[in-house]
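Example record

The entry below shows one chain as it appears in the dataset: sequence first, then structure tokens.
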Amino acid sequence: MSAQNLAAYEADIIEILKDLTSDWEDAFSDDITRDTRLIDDLGFESIDVVHLITAIEQKYDRRDLPFEELLMVEGRYKDELTVAEIAEFLGKHL
């Protein structure tokens, strides 16, 4: 995957995250970057991850992405995700 594609995916994810969190009471005050963590930085809960996945599916008009690869390791849910990890996942599967 090219660096240009990766940067485009990162920009898309950042835009989606800004939309999802724009009306949150405890909105993230820093800029969202490739290193932003969904749980520790943005305060995501499991339902927020579901909303993010839905937004990604709508953005790319895909319902067949193997999100379990992104969200799970050895049968357990990951404790954290970064914007960069999501962008790399998209680069691999789109």
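Notes for this example: The mean pLDDT is 94. The two ends are 10 Å apart (CA to CA).
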